[in-house]
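Revision sheet: structure tokens.
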Amino acid sequence: MGKLYDCIIIGSGPAGLTAAYEILNRTDSCQVLVLEEKNQIGGLAKTVDFQDYRMDLGGHRFLMVNEKVLDWWNQFLPSRGVNYIKRMFQRKQKLKLYYKGNYVSHPIVFDRKFINQVGSFRTLKCICGLIKSKIMKRKEHTLEDYYINRFGQTIYQTFLQDYMEKCWGESLKNLSCEQGTMHGENRVKTEYFLYPKLGAGQMWQEVAEKIAGMNFDVVCDFIAFVPEQVERDYRLFAGKTKQYMYISSASAYHKPVMDYRITEGTTLSNPHWEYSRNKIACEEFLMKMYRENGFPVTIIRPSHTYDERNVPIGVHGDKGSFQVLKRMLEGKPVIVHGDGTSLWTVTHNSDFAKGFTGLMGNPMAIGEAFQITSDQSVTWNQIYQAVADALHVEYKPYYVSSAYLDAAGPYDFEGALTGDKANTVVFDNKKLKNAVPGLCMNVRMEQGIRNTVDYVLSHPECQVEDPEFDAWCDKLIAVLEKAKEEMKMYEQQK
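Predicted:
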């Protein structure tokens, strides 16, 4: 016959272990058995090994205001001071969301302070998006769908998307709900939860170990988007490379445009796009390290570089530009921001490569910034017309202001249009050509687009359809046409 116990506790998490400890501490005769299905105690308060990495499960803070509980835990860490646990458990600051230089309180409250920080227009978009998410649920195929259904499109894009994608290391469009959720109706077992392979600290440490003792002629960084990432790279490569080439963005130049003629000396400022402001911050850190420590940085500012897989279009959905081509092939009008007459520059990747490689190992490039763009300035009407010509169809533009496109949602066009493509810009590449003698940008816009369209049409993997964007375009055009008719009727009735 098996042994008899006075008390059986199921689960060896904090609650179960606390209960067992208290029982045994208060009596000498009680027989206690703690049952645990796993091979390690601790429940959600333990550290686990996962694919050669160690990570903590559960919350990283123990939030408690009960003095008795705090005093109980205090006895287990006497070396840290009598009040250490209480200090550790206290949350002195509320969680904040960073938005355009302001720290917005979380959970979000649509009060006057929020409106002042975010703006009345974006506040309205947040509220409308949240309401829409409650009454018009999308099918949850991806982790992005999951968050949009709970917070709305605007709140997700404004406050959550960048952070979540940094945590996971890829777009939430590529992750299923099961990969990123562990609660509610989508609850999955812990062992199937797909953690990010490497956290930021782990990744940095692993790279540092792999390059120990190595030195480099040139280090090129195409994927640093926030200051923390270039600060990491500085720690990794300081004293290890003769040149560090950082890919910034021409969108960092002053918006609204002060002078359409852009040089490397044009002021950097973009209140409309956090992406651009982060690029500016990265540049500022790297140049500071150059001035103070001699870090051999070269800043590169490209503008709308394209290749054979992606046709350069101004207004498109989340899945790329192919749906715009499809609308043209179907004889549908395509939405063009503004009136299509603003000047823009698209740069073929082969031309960018010539300028980029010409700066590699170039002593004239150290401590300097260079824009690498085509010399050809064209209107958006010319760009769209070139696409239509390559497709052998009629160009049917439907002009909509950039501000209205952003307001109409669910797409956040403020940064991409108002902060970038909607502005007339003409790039002056004299500095680049002085540093790289004989440089010539050979791919004209018409030929580059023709080659890209031909490639996309001959490669099915590049033909990613976007029915949601297509339906949105049809709806937007219908709404504006109806408004035009109503205004005509109004004028007739006056």
